[in-house]
Structure formats: structure tokens, C-alpha cells
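Incident review: delayed structure delivery

Summary: a single-chain prediction request sat in the queue longer than the usual turnaround. Root cause was a stuck worker, restarted by the on-call engineer. No data loss occurred. The affected request and its eventual output are reproduced below so the record is complete for anyone auditing the incident later.

Affected input:
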Amino acid sequence: MDSERGPLPTPWHPSTDRRRAPRRQQDRRLLQRERELEAARLICQALSQHVNVDELVENALRIALEVVNAEAGSVLLSDEKTKQLVFRYVIGEKAEQLRGTAIPWDVGVAGSVFQSGEPAIIGDVARDTRHFSGIDSTTGFKTLDMITIPLKRWEGDPIGVLQILNKREGQLNKDDIAILTIVSALAAQAIEQARLFETAKLAEVARLLGDIGHDIKNLLTPVITGAEFLQTELNKLFGSLAAMGISGTQASQDLCNRVIGLLQDAARRIQDRVKEIGDCVKGLSTPPQFAACRVAGVVDDVIKTLHVLADEKNIFLRAEGLDALPPISADERRLFNAFYNLVHNAISAVPGGGSITVLGSVEAADGVLHLAVVDTGRGMSDEVRASLFTGRAKSNKVGGTGLGTKIVKDVVDAHGGQISVESKEDVGTTIHIRLPMQQAGSPVSSTR
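Output delivered after worker restart:
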């Protein structure tokens, strides 16, 4: 009977576990190295295929989530001007609404890691006082555990942070930190290289715009000079006709003067426009020239300038409630450019028979004007809307660059105002602008 049972098992002895322990540790180290090498291979393969910053950020985050098997994550990049961390890309349930959101770069776990340059692993975020719960409240997402890794240049300061949330099986651990450190280091270098590449391209565009602006100014000079000469000659002619008693000369003279005035204004605004585009590309902004300004007059000039383009598409341009607005302290030239961009962009999005309306009202309690540009156009996707007034603006217009909306944002910022957008596809878009009525040190008096 005993012979049928087979060989007896080797008796257990404490020395057996001692012999097996080093082997288990070695196997574990080998498995960890394989995970790290695979992560490095994936991130190198993905990042080598793109030079666009947004694509780099997206791919780096997806790979980070994949290699540690986590539910959600985000990449926040620093903004030196505002001293904020901006959610550049977010993956996870209800996370899309966070894209473009900014937090102070010394707030929360992200701010702590960005300031220290050291990674942080939190097994239970509810017990960590650094956790900024406002983000969870905004998205409805419940963060359980978290790893935050600085995105660092070689021997340099962080350019942002990588955050990974909620491991699907178990908890995020030190092995995950090791893998994510590899991903973040390679991603940071690729992002920095892409930024430098984009900066170089913008510098070249700015140089070309400078040359183009100079040429345009030279081309417009004879137009302006000719318009002035023509106005002088027409005044002489109409004066002679009036002396001869010919009726209707005054009405004709007024019409000619208005047309010549529009021509002179258009030439001046073309020069301003080219310069402003160049400044926007270079990231420069000349100080605003604040003076008393009536928004109604600015919008009226915009409508007069664009009405021919709108009429060709059978689009109705109108302003409502602006005449009743009080004068404000503003840079009239820049305000014109902002509303010109908004109305012009709306014309391209509104089908024939539609309308574009500029509305205005006073929010006396806050000392601001609330202005809105409302169109009945095709609307925009959530992705376009989220990036609209940022440096990464995407245009849904054929051949569009998104630069015009950045110019609008720069104008609003220069006035200390706020801008937001509501849009629904196939329904239309409303751009809300709130401008302070008074700028520091700039008295407001009645004008125009």
C-alpha cells in the first residue's frame, strides 16, 4: 500500500525558507527591472513620434497609467507668469472638465511636490492634510491613493508634476514610484524639447511678421496719403459746386468724407492688427493706453467694418443695450481688436440667415460692465471650448490658428477683466466679457 502513495514530501525545515528567500527577492527584482525596462521602452517609443507638447503630455500620461495599472491621472505644467500649475492633460472619470484649470503652484500635494522636487506617495489621501479636496469636489471623483512625481529637467527645476490616482489592484507603492520616475524623467525632457522647438518656430514666425508688417506699412502709406489728397480735392470741388448753387452737394460731400474716413481707419487698423499679431506670437504686450471710452462706439466701428462681409453671408449684425452703458476706462484700440476678432470669428461659424448680437449691461455692485457676443452658429466641441482662450487654443475654422482668441484673452487680461464661453453644438455660442469700469489712475469722463 505504501508503495502506491509515491515519494514522501521533503520535511520542512527553517533553513529551507532561508535558502528560498534570496531567490524570491532576486525574482522580484528581475520582475521589477522588466517592468521598468518595458516602461522605458513604451515611453521612448511614444515620445519619439511626436513634437507637439499636447500629444507628448497625453501619451506620457496614458503610458504612466498603463504601466502601474491605475484609474486616473493628470499632468500639470507650471506657468511662470501666474505662478500656477495648469492641468494640461487629464484622464479619468469626469476628468475632462479639469483641462485648463489652474491652481497656485504651492497648493495641495501637487504644489508640495513641485516646490520640493521630491516624489510623494500617499496610501490614504483622506489622512493627508496636503490633499486639495476641491478638485475631487469639482469632478465628483474620489481619490483613494496617489503618487505625485515632479517633471524635472536634468539638474534643473521642475516644469510641472505627474499625478497618478487609485491603483486598480492593491495600493500604489515604491515599485510604482520607481517606474513612474523613469516615465516622468523621459517625459519632462521630451516636453522641454518640444517647448523649445515651438519657441524657435514662433521666433521665426515673429521675425517674418516683422518683415511683413514693414512691407504692409510701406504699401499702405500711399493709400493713406492718397486718401488725404483725395479728401482735400473733393472738398475744393464740392465747395465750388455749392457756390454755383447746385443742390445735393452737401449730402454727396458727407458720403465721400465718410467713405474716405473708413478707408483711413481701415489702413490704420491693419497696421495695428499686424503689430498685435506679432506681439502675441512673441508673447509680448505693450502697456495699455487707458482713456475714457464708450463701448457702444467701439462696437459700432466693428460692425461698420465687418458689415460687408456679414451682408455677403446674409448674417445680421446688431448691438443691444450698449448706448445706455456709461463710459469706462479702456484702451480703445485694443478693445476694437478684441471685438473685431470675436465678431469676425462668429461670422465664419454662423450660417446664412443667422445673427450675431453684442449685448451690454452694468453690474453696479461689482463696478463692471458685462458684455456678451451671442451668435446662432454651429457651436463648438467641449475640447475646442476648453482650450479657447489659452495658449493651446484650437480653431474649428478651416485654416484657423486659434491666435485670434489668444489676442482677445490678452486684451481682457490687460484690462483686468474676465472672459468665459458657453457653447452648444448646432445651437450657438456666447462669449461673456466682464470689464472693470475704472482702471487705477485713469479717470473716466464722457467721450464720443
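Verification: The longest helix spans residues 174-243.
Action items: add queue-age alerting; document worker restart procedure.
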